[in-house]
Amino acid sequence: MNTSAIPNPKSAIVLIGVGNEFRGDDAVGLLIARRFAEMEIPGVTVREESGEGAALMETWQDADTVFLFDAVFNGKKPAGTIYRMDARAETIPADFFHYSTHRFGAAEAVELARELGQLPPRLVIFGVEGENFDYGTELSPAVEQIIQEVVNKVILEINGVQVL
Description:
The chain is α/β, with parallel strands linked by helices. It is about 30% helix and about 20% strand. The chain has a single domain (about 15-160), classed as HybD-like (Rossmann fold), CATH 3.40.50.1450. It has a 5-stranded mixed β-sheet, with helices on both faces.
């Protein structure tokens, strides 16, 4: 389900799942977002995006808090490793989103929004180290097992508990 065509109502919290459900582990961001959509949390808007930077900037433009979920690959840690990045406090490494099909993707959108003074007050990115980005809908077992852990961490943060 792609919700990028649906206007984004002003919401205090926006959860954005990024990915391609037909490229193995690249679907992890979408699957995390779908778990949240099933929960129907009041005051939380859940969106799915392909990862195109301009669409991401538009999606988060009126939000107070944004959590963005995406597959990453840096090859230094095992599949299923969770990275938490506070976009207000640190630069997002563009090479993490190595498998993105967009030249202007999540990392570039964050950095452009930073330069333009258009970052939301709070923007947290949860990246999950992927392993398999081949065509197909199968996730690597390590990536599939980590989805609920990311959901749990975000729920804690929504409730005001700092997660490292």
